[in-house]
Amino acid sequence: xxxxxxxxxxxxxxxxxxxxxxxxxxxxxxxxxxxxxxxxxxxxxxxxxxxxxxxxxxxxxxxxxxxxxxxxxxxxxxxxxxxxxxxxxxxxxxxxxxxxxxxxxxxxxxxxxxxxxxxxxxxxxxxxxxxxxxxxxxxxxxxxxxxxxxxxxxxxxxxxxxxxxxxxxxxxxxxxxxxxxxxxxxxxxxxxxxxxxxxxxxxxxxxxxxxxxxxxxxxxxxxxxxxxxxxxxxxxxxxxxxxxxxxxxxxxxxxx
Length: 256
Hints:
5 helices, single chain, alpha+beta
């Protein structure tokens, strides 16, 4: 019999130690849970109905008349408008959502319906709590104003990046259009089954410190009649399902 090979014995011992020694835990943290998938649909490319030709001709003739200044001048109010009862409203209905953290700015999202991606998101120059207080008064008129563009400019009114904002005739800063971010889409996804109503959503961990333990994201959703007066004037009238018992909200987009 030959002498045992020491190298073979050492290899066998190393293999045995490798199989019997406990595995070291991995130092890499587990991957974060995946974000909920957004299932909102692309809005359809519907064309907004334009005023009929006869009305456009009448309007152009009417605008050619001289402006007569009355002896008694009435005060001019930014964002002022005739009451809804004096206007003919026959526009299509869209979904509008006002949402935001109570201590943060409120945003306006417009959708073709609750199951579609937003077609417009505007960040308002107003805290959510302040808007809630205004709505409790029963009537709110929000006007977004910007300067007119040259006649050859084809920029649509709701594509303007910045508006001066007025709430019930008082200037409140500026409204800024922005692309829908991940948080906006998550809110719209959570509210996909809500056609109209108001409430709160639980705050996420990123806003827990600034909102406190009871931090909440408030929202109000309703149908709006979208009336296009001209290329420089569009209005959203909130449809109140409770008649005159709820708040009235009208949003104006105008070039002046």
